[in-house]
Structures are given as C-alpha cells and as structure tokens.
Design a protein that fits this description.
Glutaredoxin, globular, two-stranded antiparallel ribbon
C-alpha cells in the first residue's frame, strides 16, 4: 500500500495530469484555416516558428499555454502554427506552396513563410501576424511577446474588428 501511495504522489508531481488535456489544441493547419474561413469568418492569428528558435520554444512553453491566451486564440481567433522550414507542399487559397530552398539553404524557408514575412526584411522567428475576419493583415510582430503583451495585441484587434 505504501508503494502505491508513493507511485501516486510521484505521478501527480510529474506534471502529467490527463484531466487537464492539451492546452494548445487550438492550432489549425493552413488547409483547416481555409475551410474554417469559408464556413465562418473570424480573425486569424498566424504563428511561424522554427525548431532552432529559442524564443519560439519559450513562447510555446510559457505563452501559448497560459489559459487566458489559449482561451482567446481558441475562442476568438483561428490560430495557425507553422514550421517555417516545413519540407512538404501545402494547399492554400487555391495554390500549392512548397519549400523550394530545401536543397540550397541550411535554413530553407517554406514559400508560405516567405510570403507572410513580406519583402521588407529577412525572416527571423518568431513571426506572428494578426488578420481581421476578411483576412486583411492588421499587424506583423517579429519578436518574442510575453503572455500579457500577446493578450493586449489580440484584444486590441478584436476591438477594432
């Protein structure tokens, strides 16, 4: 009985609590975004990351998991998380986008990352974009945001939508 109690305590302390569920299950793919916008337009939040981006990992661990951020993104926005170096093709807006830099660059960027980054600067993750419900770009953010700053950005665009 003592062993069972110790195992239970260790289990609870390990952070694995299945009743909580995944706090970031709100992320969509570009294909899902297109379908969702056709059914019910609402504001869009795009988040581009890479595996090597330290601030991206920090945002994923500390910002997007906050209940108030997750609630905003899952309830008020369509949120898309996309690896900027994704190797496969994506169909979006009637076009096929691919990663044409795969064999020519150490950090190959997918065409969607290049497109949404714009031509003004080199790509540097994390890259976040906020769109209104008609999919017009409202803000481009190319830096780490803590949860409070991200919440302010998201709420500001809800009020103006």
């Amino acid at each position: 009985m003592k062993k069972l109690a110790i195992i239970l305590v260790l289990f609870l302390l390990s952070g694995y609590l299945p009743a909580q569920g995944d706090k970031t299950s709100f992320w969509l793919t570009f294909e899902q975004l297109e379908d969702s916008l056709n059914v019910r337009p609402k504001p869009v939040f795009l988040y581009f990351h890479t595996d090597w981006c330290t601030y991206c990992r920090k945002m994923e661990a500390e910002v997007f998991t906050k209940p108030f951020v997750a609630s905003l993104l899952s309830g008020e926005y369509y949120a898309v998380k996309f690896d900027a170096e994704y190797p496969d093709e994506i169909r979006f807006d009637g076009k096929v986008f691919s990663n044409k830099q795969l064999k020519t660059s150490r950090t190959p960027l997918h065409e969607l990352a290049v497109l949404f980054n714009g031509k003004a600067s080199d790509f540097a993750p994390p890259l976040m974009l906020v769109f209104d419900s008609a999919f017009f770009a409202k803000e481009r953010i190319n830096t780490y945001l803590d949860s409070k700053k991200l919440e302010r950005v998201l709420r500001k665009h809800l009020e103006s939508n």
